[in-house]
Structures are given as structure tokens and as C-alpha cells.
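Re: [ENG-882] Designed sequences occasionally contain unexpected residues at chain ends

Forwarding the minimal case from QA. C-alpha cells:
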């Protein structure tokens, strides 16, 4: 068990920055295809972050492939691929189904992270922390809930292709989260190297698909640059969290970003069902509090 400390604080900070980023995407970038958006923003994020890598170092502390081992190299590369695959699967789910069904399922990532870390990495959490993970995950689910019976999206996952893709997306995000923990804690890849490697790796994986539906970015270039800066900050905070605490603790907290985004949308854009979004926010606060207990 990891005691609460800076890792929890970094995870909370990441949730707020990612939540603001998601809100900005909905508000200012809705006209761009998801793949094109990812390439443009990730390119800007890497450009923002490389000076940090250059000034803080990290390449001199990068372990050799021999020191990490074949498994470590595979996990490192697999984490990048899993993160990119999760995003592409989510886009595919949105193409096939309504967001009201897809969004809640795609955000139940901690449901996969917890058993992965307990069974594979033998991580131990207290019963209170496990309860916190469950409550925080429920908060994210409720934040993305739109209409109909509360658990209809999960029941639909048994038959609907869109829901199945969303479920696969959540599983891939979970693999990416556990992979980040291994890369930063077990294999000791320097954070200042890992962040641009992850962002650039996702860019490379998504680029072939983005080229097929490419649209000019010049008209919104300042927005892409600012959004890239936000992603660089958010990914830095995320990586700090995963370098200090288990993925089963960091992931549910960071994924409350969805709650931050919908609350911002309710306040600033007066989106519908604001009451249930406030319920989600309350659940998120309780969940994070239990995790940090």
C-alpha cells in the first residue's frame, strides 16, 4: 500500500487540467475530426515539452534496453500502442452509436485497472481505498450518463457493437494506465523522456488515419498551440502521479476529469441535466477522499 501524499495531489491536478482540456475540445474544436485533432494537439504538446527535456535532462539517465530487458521494452512500446488504440476504439464506438451509450462505458477504466494491478502486480489496497475506487468510478459513469435507465448502457454492451467498442476502449486505456505505472516505477524511465515519447508515439500511431481525413489547421493554429500546452501540463502531472502511486489509485482520480468537464459545461454552457452532474461531482469528491484516506 502506498500512503497518500504528492501522488494523490498530482492525480487531482491532472484531473482538473484534463477536465478543462475536454471542455475546451467540446467548446472550440468540435469541427475537427478526432484523429486530426490528436495529431495537431500532440504535435504542439511535444513542441512545448521538448525544452523541458533539454533543460532538465533525462536522456543521460535513460536505462539501456539491456537493463530494462525485452519485457520492459515490450511494455513501454505496448503502453504507447494501447493508449493510441484506446482513442481509436473510442472514435469507432462514437461512429457506430450514440454518445449517450458510448461515453459512460468508455470511462469505466478503473474497473479494469484494479483487477489488473491486484492480480498481475500483486498490489494491495485497503478496503476503504477499494470503496473509493468504486465510488470514483461510479462518479465518472454518472457524469457521462445521459438518459434512460441508469445501467442501460452496460446492458447494451452485451449486444451493441458501439458499446462493445467502448468497452474495448476502456480496457485499452486501463492497459495504458498500468503500463505507465510500470514504465515510470519499475523500469525507471525518466519522466522528462517518457512524456514526449508517449505523446509523440500516439501521434505516430494515429497519423496514418489522420492523413485520410486531414483538414487545414492554420485558421485555428493559436488554439492548437494553447491546447498543446495544456496537454503537456496534464500529461506531466499524470506521469508524476503514476510515478508515485499505484495505477489503481491514480487512474480513478485522474479519470474524474470527466466530472470536471461536465460540471464546467453545465456552469458555462448551461448543458442539460446539470443536477445529475452535481451528483457525479459529489460522488467524485467522496471517492477521492476515500482513496486518499
Amino acid at each position: 500500500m502506498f500512503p497518500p501524499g504528492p501522488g494523490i495531489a498530482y492525480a487531482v491536478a491532472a484531473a482538473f487540467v484534463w477536465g478543462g482540456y475536454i471542455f475546451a475540445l467540446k467548446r472550440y474544436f468540435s469541427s475537427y475530426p478526432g484523429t486530426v485533432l490528436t495529431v495537431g494537439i500532440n504535435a504542439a504538446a511535444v513542441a512545448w515539452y521538448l525544452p523541458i527535456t533539454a533543460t532538465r535532462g533525462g536522456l543521460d539517465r535513460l536505462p539501456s534496453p539491456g537493463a530494462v530487458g525485452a519485457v520492459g521494452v515490450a511494455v513501454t512500446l505496448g503502453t504507447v500502442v494501447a493508449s493510441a488504440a484506446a482513442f481509436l476504439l473510442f472514435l469507432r464506438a462514437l461512429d457506430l452509436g450514440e454518445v449517450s451509450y458510448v461515453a459512460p462505458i468508455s470511462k469505466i477504466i478503473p474497473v479494469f485497472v484494479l483487477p489488473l494491478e491486484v492480480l498481475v502486480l500483486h498490489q494491495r489496497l485497503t478496503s476503504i481505498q477499494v470503496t473509493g475506487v468504486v465510488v470514483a468510478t461510479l462518479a465518472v459513469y454518472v457524469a457521462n450518463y445521459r438518459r434512460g435507465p441508469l445501467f442501460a448502457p452496460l446492458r447494451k454492451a452485451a449486444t451493441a457493437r458501439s458499446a462493445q467498442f467502448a468497452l474495448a476502449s476502456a480496457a485499452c486505456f486501463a492497459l495504458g494506465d498500468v503500463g505507465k505505472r510500470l514504465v515510470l516505477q519499475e523500469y525507471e524511465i525518466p519522466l522528462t523522456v517518457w512524456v514526449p515519447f508517449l505523446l509523440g508515439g500516439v501521434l505516430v500511431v494515429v497519423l496514418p488515419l489522420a492523413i485520410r481525413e486531414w483538414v487545414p489547421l492554420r485558421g485555428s493554429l493559436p488554439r492548437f498551440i494553447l491546447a498543446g500546452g495544456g496537454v503537456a501540463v496534464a500529461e506531466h502531472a499524470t506521469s508524476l502521479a503514476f510515478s508515485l502511486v499505484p495505477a489503481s489509485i491514480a487512474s480513478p482520480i485522474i479519470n474524474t476529469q470527466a466530472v470536471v468537464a461536465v460540471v464546467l459545461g453545465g456552469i458555462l454552457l448551461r448543458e442539460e441535466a446539470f443536477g445529475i452532474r452535481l451528483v457525479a461531482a459529489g460522488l467524485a469528491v467522496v471517492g477521492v477522499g476515500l482513496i486518499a484516506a
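QA comment: On inspection the terminal residues look reasonable. Residues 53 and 192 are 5 Å apart (CA to CA). Proposing we downgrade this to a documentation issue.
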